[in-house]
Amino acid sequence: MKKLGWIIVVVIVGAVVFRIVQHFKTGESVKSVTEVATEVLIEEVKMGDIAQTLSYTGNIEGQEQVTVYPIEETGRLIKYLVKEGGIVKKGQVIALVDRSIKGMEFRPAKITSPLSGTVGMLFLDRGAMVAPQIPIAMIADINKVKIKIQIVERDISKVHKGQSAVITVDAYPDKKFQGKLLQISSFVNPMTKTAEGEIIVPNQGHILKPGMFARVELIVDKHKGVLVVPNKAVLKQEGKEIVFVDAGNIAKLKEVETGFEDENRTEIISGLELGEPVIVLGNYGLRDSGRIKIKE
Fold first, then answer.
1. Whole-model pTM?
2. Residue 107, class by beta-carbon neighbours within 10 Å (0-12 exposed, 13-18 middle, 19+ buried)?
3. Of 219, 197, 217, 199, which Cα lies nearest the Cα of 208?
């Protein structure tokens, strides 16, 4: 009789456990069915060219730029014969100086331009004292302009004369100017551990002005015909680089190896194939095999 009682107890407990297990299974099934799909935006893996760049900043100067001093003349400025922004020829008279001494008279001294270019600044007012140590004017050739950059020691081996550069300035934020690295100093500054480089930029229309602040992207290497994806497609997870791709409205995680990166795109060395749909928006917080909904 006792044995029969124990059998009944075991059967009842088993039935209860079975019902509990079934309840949880049903709950998980309902949960999986009702899982909210994450809305995402996708782009296909493309093939293109991508460059490795080094970033610098500097001030724009005329390709040739000189400050004019009255080398031997002392006296007072009679007048300028040019205006700021005006064009001058080499040897052209730009100012007259009264060098008279009390009791003696001299013809006005002529101050000439040492080069052809544009008058950048006139420093004195009429009647101001003129002396060899006082600047008269600044003249610059701005048909081309230059930007001096400071190349850190660890990058010197990557930098060579003739490399292309892309220049931007705040005055024209949507415009990019093309330049080239004309020369690199043969010496490294022992204080800053940098070598000076000089970028030359054609200046059609003279829209780049001496004194402007410039940003320089120096192209030191380029890969052609490689797989690229938008930068925002690549995520970092536990020290690895990953990308999510669309696998029939399911997010599939793929580990990738990357190469060069520019302001918009990242080179993919391995892990993806041309044309694969990668998730570029909505990928943060996604999980492998999570449900997704593609934005139209």
1. 0.71
2. exposed
3. 199
CA distance 13 to 7: 10
70-135 folds as: OB fold (Dihydrolipoamide Acetyltransferase, E2P) (2.40.50)
Render pLDDT for 115-173 as a digit per residue (tens, 0 to 9).
Answer: 999 998 999 999 999 988 999 999 999 999 999 999 999 999 999 999 999 999 999 99
What CATH class is the domain 38-50+224-294?
mainly beta
Is domain 53-60+142-223 classified as CATH 2.40.30.170? yes
R_g (Cα) of the chain, nearest Å: 36
CA-nearest of 50, 43, 39 to 275 is 43
Q: Where in the chain is the domain with CATH 2.40.50.100?
A: 70-135
